[in-house]
């Protein structure tokens, strides 16, 4: 039973004629200082009912409330401050985590229903840059968090493998590229050609029309255009998979934009059947004025399709294939308007399940305060950043622990984990500047700090040869352990908050605070002192390792046992 539930019941038993137990629980507060107890009940709300001063009410309640579940109840002005029974609560919390292990904080809210998550989604023939990191790691962490609360995530890499950019790339390749150069350095050369196209198009606008014409040939299945497109796609996927392997991220589907090319006619037909399509200056639109939105452009004057048409086909395909409980799109904040239009058109078509589609926006990663842009060639390659982070971790490990076994593997877990953690500790909607030196540090609010804390705790357990026993009743009553026990007690609520808000930073911040609380405890307590509390202290250390490891897992990080 949670502390607030215990307090609410104790107060309610005395004032049940005046407030419901739910009302009592809503009034309860967490005191700012531990000196003021664990839970506080303010008596102000009873002043009108009892026609007495809140201070007097608090004193009278204190005399009537059953003190059995508490160490003490203290009246401070109009507040009743409750001090929980530390031994009883710590015993309950420690034993629950020992019994449930990594499943502590699991819920069955999702009833195993499917949740497609549209994430990562790089463009073919362009490198995966730091700009793709957020969608990839946020989407992966949300998938893990939703799995913990009972959903079945379906991670979809909706590849940008269709569109006018391929017409541009075909034109650029035929004008300025060679097969030999592309084969020797696929992504680098294709990026160079893409950037060159845009630079030259600023001087010669006719290139843009050439690019559109080349894409129309691709849409019409011109053999040369299709062959080049397939080649660009295959070479790109090889490069992408190398980076996803480094990140430790897998996907359930790589169906990208091209997959829906033959599924868009059905969308147009459905819109016509429902009399939703209108002609506007030669183009075909859906009027969304009822939603206070601009018209959705379904077909351009030249008959070409747009993102929204493909996204409608994808949404319908996903509903039919997965019968989803909800469908998530982990896509940058700048696409918010597009998803409002997408949902509105589907709603107009009578698809009420569009209410279960959610755009999960996020802020940008900047470099020196500037937005990263592939088109202008301002690219920070993700693979290079990950390699640099691993090297930085390797250097620090060599300095701190030169005799460590599997140094290379652990450096990879720490370096890559540092980059992922740095992204996820930031609130999803925040924009932040990336500086490698701040990311791969073993001190401060970093991934390596949390991993190092986990490794330190594991070292203590190894030294003591401690194995947690489900049959034993471990209990602690000292102030140092109590702060950690209360923190552990709130773990399930933290998981629900992260899941409800699709917010991995909630988990990352929990991991940092738990690591900080443990290190403070470690610094002030002789954990291995040979007394009657040693086993209970080691049980607390064990429980901390369980939760730190689970936090790291939910963020997509490894938890090395030695560092």
What features would you describe in this structure?
The chain has helices at about 5-15, 20-25, 45-50, 55-65, 85-100, 135-150, 165-175, 180-185, 185-205, 205-220, 225-245, 265-275, 305-320, 335-350, 380-400, 405-425, 435-440, 445-465, 480-490, 490-500, 505-525, 535-555, and strands at about 40, 70-75, 80-85, 115-120, 150-155, 275-280, 285, 295-300, 325-330, 355-360, 365, 370, 430-435. β9, α14 and β10 form a beta-alpha-beta unit. The longest helix has 25 residues, at about 225-245. It is built from 22 helices and 13 strands. It is of the alpha/beta class. It has a 4-stranded parallel sheet with strand order 5-4-9-10, sandwiched between helices. A 3-stranded antiparallel sheet has the order 1-3-2.
Q: Describe the largest sheet.
A: 4 strands, parallel
Strand content: 5-15%
Supply the helix-strand structural class. Answer: alpha/beta
Low-confidence stretches: none
Give the tally of β-strands.
13
Question: What is the averaged pLDDT score?
Answer: 93
- The strand order across the widest sheet is 5-4-9-10
End-to-end Cα distance, whole Å, is 37 Å
SS summary, helix count: 22
| Overall form | globular
Q: Determine Rg (CA atoms, Å).
A: 29 Å
- Assign a percent range to the helix content: 40-55%
Keywords: Aminoacyl-tRNA synthetase, ATP-binding, Cytoplasm, Ligase, Nucleotide-binding, Protein biosynthesis
Organism: Tetragenococcus koreensis
Main location: cytoplasm
GO molecular function, one term: ATP binding
């Amino acid at each position: 039973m949670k502390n607030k539930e215990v307090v609410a019941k104790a107060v309610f038993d005395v004032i049940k004629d005046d407030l419901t137990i739910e009302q009592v629980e809503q009034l309860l507060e967490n005191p700012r200082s531990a000196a003021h107890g664990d839970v506080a009940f303010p008596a102000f709300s009873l002043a009108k009912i009892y026609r007495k001063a809140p201070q007097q009410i608090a004193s009278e309640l204190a005399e009537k409330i059953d003190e059995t579940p508490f160490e003490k109840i203290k009246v401070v002005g109009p507040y009743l401050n409750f001090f929980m029974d530390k031994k009883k609560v710590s015993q309950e919390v420690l034993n629950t985590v020992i019994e449930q292990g990594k499943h502590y904080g699991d819920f069955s809210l999702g009833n195993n229903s499917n949740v497609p998550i549209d994430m990562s989604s790089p463009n073919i023939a362009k490198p995966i840059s730091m700009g793709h990191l957020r969608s990839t790691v946020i989407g992966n962490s949300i998938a893990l968090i939703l799995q913990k609360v009972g959903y079945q995530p379906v991670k979809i890499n909706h590849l940008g493998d269709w569109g006018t950019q391929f017409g541009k790339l075909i034109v650029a390749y035929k004008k300025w590229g060679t097969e030999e150069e592309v084969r020797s350095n696929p992504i680098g050369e294709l990026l160079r050609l893409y950037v060159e196209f845009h630079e030259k198009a600023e001087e010669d606008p006719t290139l843009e029309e050439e690019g559109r014409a080349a894409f129309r040939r691709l849409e019409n299945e011109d053999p040369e255009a299709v062959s080049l497109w397939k080649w660009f796609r295959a070479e790109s996927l090889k490069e992408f998979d190398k980076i996803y392997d480094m990140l430790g991220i897998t996907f359930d589907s790589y169906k990208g934009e091209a997959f829906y090319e033959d599924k868009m006619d059905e969308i147009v037909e459905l819109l016509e059947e429902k009399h939703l399509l209108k002609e506007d200056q030669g183009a075909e639109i859906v009027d969304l004025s009822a939603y206070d939105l601009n018209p959705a452009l379904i077909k351009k004057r030249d008959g070409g399709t747009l993102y929204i048409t493909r996204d409608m086909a994808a949404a319908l395909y996903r509903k039919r294939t997965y019968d989803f409980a909800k469908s998530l799109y982990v896509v940058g904040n700048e696409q918010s308007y597009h998803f409002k239009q997408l949902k509105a058109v589907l709603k107009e078509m009578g698809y009420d399940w569009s209410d279960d589609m959610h755009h999960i926006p996020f802020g940008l990663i900047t470099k020196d305060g500037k937005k990263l842009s592939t088109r202008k060639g301002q690219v920070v390659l993700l693979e290079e950043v990950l390699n640099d982070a691993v090297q930085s971790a390797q250097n620090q490990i060599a300095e701190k622990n030169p005799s460590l076994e599997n140094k290379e593997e652990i450096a990879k877990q720490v370096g890559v984990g540092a980059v992922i953690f740095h992204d996820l500790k930031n609130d999803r909607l925040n924009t932040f500047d990336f500086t490698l030196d701040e990311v791969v540090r073993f001190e401060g609010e970093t991934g390596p700090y949390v991993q190092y804390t986990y490794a330190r705790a594991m070292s203590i357990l190894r030294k003591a040869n401690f194995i947690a026993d489900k049959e034993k009743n471990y209990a602690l009553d000292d102030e140092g352990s109590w702060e950690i026990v209360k923190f552990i007690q709130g773990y399930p609520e933290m998981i629900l908050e992260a899941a409800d808000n699709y917010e991995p930073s909630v988990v990352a911040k929990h991991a940092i605070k738990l690591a900080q609380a443990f290190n403070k405890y470690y610094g002030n307590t002789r954990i291995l002192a040979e007394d009657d509390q040693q086993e209970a202290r080691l049980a607390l250390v064990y429980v901390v390792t369980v939760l730190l490891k689970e936090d790291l897992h939910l963020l997509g990080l490894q938890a090395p046992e030695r560092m």
